[in-house]
Every structure is written in C-alpha cells, then in structure tokens.
C-alpha cells in the first residue's frame, strides 16, 4: 500500500472512534504498529474488557493487573462506551473459595472499576454495560452474583446502563441524579428477598426487567417512558397467609376497581408507556396486586402479554388491562402450546365486566404467537 493511503490518512479523531470498537487488549496492541499509533489507544472512545472462558488473558491475576493499569492510563479524552464482561465470573469466585483465597478481592476489583468509570470527570461515559455471569442460574447459587457497593449513581452524562448478573441494593437504584439516563436494563439480577426495592429513574425512555430474582422492584413515576419489557416469572412475590381469601389471591373478584395507586408495584410506573410487554409467572401474583389499582394507560398502543394473562375460563386480568388501555391498536398474546394444554385443565370463573365491548374501539390487530 503506498505511503499516505489507507487507514493512515484518517484523522486521529476517526481512529479513536474505530479503536473504541475493539476489545481493550486488541486496542492496546496497536501501539506497536507505528510511532503515530503509540498513544492513540489511550483516546479510544470505547473501553471493552471481555474476560473469561479463554477470551482474554486467561488468568484472573493477569486480568486484574491489566484493567488496573488500563484505567490508570486512559482515557485521555471523553469515553463514550464502557463494557466490562466477565463470562466466568462465577467460576472464578468458586475457584477462589476452593483454593482458600478470598473472593472479596475480585469483587473489590470489579466494584473499583465500575465506580471509577462512573465517577470519573474525564471519562464522561454515556453507555455502561456490566456483565458478571454467563448463565441464567439463580444468582447466589451455582453462579454467584456481583454485589455492587451501596452507593447512588451520580452521572450527568450517562444515557444507557445495562446490568447482567448483578446484585443491586436500595441506594444504587436511585438514578435521580442521572438526568440523561434514558435506557435501563436489568437481566438476571438479584434484588432483595426481604424488602421491596424502588427504582427511581424519572428520565427513562425504555426499561427492561428480565430474569429478576427476589421481590419485584417497585417502579416510581417515569413520565417519559415509551417502551418497557417486564418479566416477573422468576420473582418471589407471594401471599404469605395460608388459605388467604384477600383481593390479591385466586379467590378474589376485586380487580380493576381503580381505588387508588399507592399499592401499585409495576403498572403505575409503566402507565405512560406506548409499547409494553408484560410477562407473568403462573400465579401472576404481582400483576394481580397491581390490577387492584389499575391505572389508565392513556398512551398505550402496542401490548404483548403471555398466556398467564388469559387463563381458561378466567379472563378478568386480560379484560381489566384492555379496559384501561383506551387507545390500544395492537395486542399480541404469546401462548406456549404445552402450557396452554396444561391450563385447560384448570378451572376459573369468568366475571362479566361493564363496558367490555368498548375495548375493541381502537384495536386494529390481534395476534396469537404460539
């Protein structure tokens, strides 16, 4: 290739952007290409540390030393994206324990990296992804979770936060000091089993809660919310009273009475969304609680529900949420054939509700996804 052609003619700012898409160790290696490249990696707009399963460096000690050194030397310019992914995090924790070494060392390292990037004035990170597991096992069992320090996230630049396999706490879930945070994702994360945590993120545009363990978190007001996907299949919400006949259990007919919203866990916080996917477990306990104080979804046009919203002979939950969605245009019912066959053996009672015919006024599409 002739001198002065190809990638070498690109300005430094463009090369910084390109290097931001490489994994961190590959970006650093470019320093040996030529004198001009010696320090370009320090100004890469992305920092991606992907470790585990032979992906990077191999040993835990090498990984920790590398990342510590990396964060000391960069970024030399504002960082757009930071991704820290440990696909063997749980394996490393268990290995440390079996070898008589404290697992707190790794937990301390990862916490230090996370908060250093989050709090650094020079970083100004906008997109932050932290993944500390590679399976969908229950955190705390065979695949230990990463417990984040009990601190509030305070960032004037963060727009997207994605967490996978993380144990969160009450203080961490307060994002009121993140005015630009619009996208928030929790996958396979561990919430508290004893008390209900609250997610405060008033600027959110999109929310994902998937494979959540512990008690379902309570959502505070999100007036700018457009799209949300919420799965409660793995949550531990339940009525603790034996043979209970309260309004939240199967024997109750008190649904959709709209008597207030203080008791709402999820639906009140989701009430401004235009696009919703609500995936429930077999007992649908959390959503039954919320339907007792069902808000009006005045902007909702697209709704996806799974089979537990339309049990045979008991469509109260489905009818209730449809009656509270006056401008709904598309409804998708995601039904598992095997689960559906099992449900046909269950018995329920259908209670007619006034105004049921009105739910079809704006509905244009109904899909059944088997």
Automatic annotation (TrEMBL):
Residues 4-50 form the F-box domain. PANTHER family: F-BOX DOMAIN-CONTAINING PROTEIN (PTHR34223:SF107), OS11G0201299 PROTEIN (PTHR34223). This is F-box domain-containing protein.
């Amino acid at each position: 290739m002739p001198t002065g052609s190809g990638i070498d003619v690109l300005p430094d700012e463009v090369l910084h952007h390109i290097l931001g898409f490489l994994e961190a160790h590959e970006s650093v290696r470019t320093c040996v290409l030529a004198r001009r490249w010696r320090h370009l990696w320090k100004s890469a707009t992305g920092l991606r540390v992907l470790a585990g399963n032979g992906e990077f460096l191999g040993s835990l000690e090498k990984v920790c030393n590398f990342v510590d050194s990396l964060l000391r030397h960069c970024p030399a310019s504002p960082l757009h994206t930071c991704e820290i992914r440990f696909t063997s995090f749980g394996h490393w924790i268990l290995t440390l324990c079996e070898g008589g070494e404290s697992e707190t060392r790794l937990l301390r390292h990862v916490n230090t990296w996370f908060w250093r990037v989050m709090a650094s004035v020079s970083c100004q990170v906008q997109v932050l992804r932290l993944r500390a597991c590679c399976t969908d096992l229950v955190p705390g069992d065979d695949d230990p979770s990463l417990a984040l320090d009990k601190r509030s996230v305070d960032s004037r630049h963060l727009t997207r936060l994605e967490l996978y396999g993380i144990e969160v706490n009450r203080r961490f879930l307060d994002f009121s000091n993140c005015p630009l945070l619009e996208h928030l994702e929790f996958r396979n994360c561990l919430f508290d089993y004893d008390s209900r945590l609250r997610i405060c993120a008033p600027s959110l545009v999109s929310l994902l809660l998937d494979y959540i363990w512990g008690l379902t978190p309570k959502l505070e007001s999100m007036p700018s919310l457009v799209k949300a996907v919420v799965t409660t299949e793995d949550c531990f919400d339940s009525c603790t009273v034996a043979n209970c006949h309260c309004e939240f259990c199967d024997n109750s007919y008190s649904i959709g009475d709209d008597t207030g919203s203080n008791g709402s866990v999820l639906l009140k916080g989701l009430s401004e969304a235009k696009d919703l996917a609500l995936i429930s477990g077999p007992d649908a306990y959390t959503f039954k609680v919320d339907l007792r104080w069902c808000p009006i979804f005045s902007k909702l046009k697209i709704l996806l529900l799974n089979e537990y919203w339309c049990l045979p002979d008991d469509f109260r939950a489905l009818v209730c949420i449809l009656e509270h969605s006056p401008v709904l245009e598309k409804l998708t019912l995601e039904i598992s054939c095997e689960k559906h066959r099992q449900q046909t053996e269950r018995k329920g009672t259908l209670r007619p509700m006034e105004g049921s015919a009105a739910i079809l006024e704006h509905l244009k599409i109904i899909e059944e996804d088997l």
